[in-house]
């Protein structure tokens, strides 16, 4: 089949390459000419604009958006809605809020355009290892795109699936990322405890490597952690500032709305927020209160 991909960054470019390698005809567009050129080198057909991309696809068309959530996705959806025709399909592969996806699906649906929300996991490794795909939207539209899903997934029969109607794909991806927050925080805290113990001068890279085989805590995240720890001094050059792209916040909001406790995910999100504070006022105030009532010493500012 053929597919248009808008946004050829780390994820979109890898997806275009994997689809082209799988025998699909891929038309790619990005605002950066270098990204388009890289996709062409990987076997895609380059497009100079959204209109050019749509013109190079045969109906019924399928266009996959791999752009940042929020305004960029909204703008692309609006523009493509005026270019696509009844029977075409738009797929949002970004980390959009599921409520936005439901709204967009309803809006483009009035034009006869199907809208699929596809949660995509795999990062930069998906190009070679495959992408985990959680798809929401019309069942018939999902079936039409099945050849592409099979090529993008780790295997034709594993790592992908339609999880429900419009919004379900991004909802499942949201919770997936919330779980990811908790796993990352647990690994980080555990290795921090190991590092702090002076008795045996523990080799963290060695321990991570041991845990990768047979341990109940083995995972792909642990594999990546082992590689990071093997770099040693390189870790000291990384600022302790952890960003988030929204899914953790939305997961916590859903847990509150549904009265489902999620203390691990909530705390992991709070830790990310704390990492961004250059001036830890709360901790300074805590130290001052302790000094005030107990006469305890305080450190330098």
What would you say this structure looks like, in words?
The chain contains 14 helices and 8 strands. By secondary structure, the chain is of the alpha/beta class. Strands 3-2-1-4-5-6-7-8 form an 8-stranded mixed β-sheet, with helices on both faces. The radius of gyration is 23 Å and the shape is globular. It starts with a strand and ends in a 7-residue tail after the last helix. The model has no long low-confidence stretch (mean pLDDT 94).
Helix content: 40-55%
Looking at the structure, what is the overall shape? globular
Give the mean pLDDT. 94
| Amino-to-carboxy terminus distance | 62 Å
The helix tally amounts to 14
Based on helices, strands and strand pairing, what is the structural class? alpha/beta
Number of strands: 8
The largest pleated sheet is described as: 8 strands, mixed
Uncertain segments are none
Helix-strand sequence = EHEHEHEHEHEHEHHEHHHHHH
Spatial strand sequence of the major β-sheet: 3-2-1-4-5-6-7-8
Query: Percent of residues in beta strands?
Result: 5-15%
Radius of gyration: 23 Å
